[in-house]
Amino acid sequence: MTILDGKKVSNDIKDEIAEEVKKMQARGEKVPHLAAIIVGNDGASMTYVNSKVKACKRVGFESTLIRMSATSSELELLDKIEQLNNDESIDGFIVQLPLPPQIDTQKILMAIDPDKDVDGFHPTNFGKMSLDMTSFIPATPFGILELLERYDIPTKGKHTVVIGRSHIVGRPMSILMGRSGFPGNSTVTLTHKYTKNITQITSQADIIIIAVGIPHFLKAEMIKDDAVVIDVGITRVPDDSTEKGYVITGDVDFDNVKKKASYLTPVPGGVGPMTISMLLKNTLLARERHQK
Ligand code: GUN
């Protein structure tokens, strides 16, 4: 059984991006600039956004963090987006999700200039991704593709089962694994909370990608021998014995599944760190596209 070391691979990618930034500087070009908007002060969201800003520093990007109050109106957020769309110094930006209930998320994502949408959530980018056109691929699915590629895990003709149909992970993942090329060319089954007899489906999977946010949902009995298992879950489970008061827990029953799987991502240290590196990669791509 091989552990897919997302932390190591993501560090390799950051090193590669930092090299590219150095080359840009040597050519006298502007370095990539990522902005992030966060509305409210949800603990997990703040942690993610701060990690994104820190990662920018590490690779030599410029970054801007825009904090807005939890009571901000939709119009205030749309105004901020318009400013970033028109600001030539910004190559790409993200609006951290989830947003407070008074704000319509789809309306916000539609307002982002697709050429600066480094999260790849705008319908234009999602459509282009589905049609094999150049776009921004959402960072978490992009990170999973990169892990499969760097570990040279065969995907052609394999049965990939995706569990969870979220717009951020499951849905795009199901499209990407079925596209032509590598990693892709899989036969894909997309399952969700209304799927009946899920074990019957998962037990036929060569590759399982799970993103449901239910700790330890995927048990060893649900997979076949030598399956490849990618765990996207990151739930904070309360635990008073730890300093932070919680432990980060994945969607996979790791200790038992590891006895059966051929490849497995740990949580933390698997898909999570990859997501940040792929956001940086998208921002680098945005800069390069703007440069042309
Ligand atoms: N919330 C959880 N994941 C993401 C992500 O990839 N991007 C943004 N903007 N918000 C998120």
Automatic annotation (TrEMBL):
It comes from the Bacteria. Transmembrane segments: none annotated. NADP(+) binds at residues 164-166, 234. Gene3D superfamilies: Leucine Dehydrogenase, chain A, domain 1 (3.40.50.10860), NAD(P)-binding Rossmann-like Domain (3.40.50.720). Pathway: One-carbon metabolism; tetrahydrofolate interconversion. It catalyses: (6R)-5,10-methylene-5,6,7,8-tetrahydrofolate + NADP(+) = (6R)-5,10-methenyltetrahydrofolate + NADPH; (6R)-5,10-methenyltetrahydrofolate + H2O = (6R)-10-formyltetrahydrofolate + H(+). Residues 138-290 form the Tetrahydrofolate dehydrogenase/cyclohydrolase NAD(P)-binding domain. Homodimer. This is Bifunctional protein FolD. It comes from Mesonia maritima. The lineage of its organism: Bacteria, Pseudomonadati, Bacteroidota, Flavobacteriia, Flavobacteriales. The gene is folD.
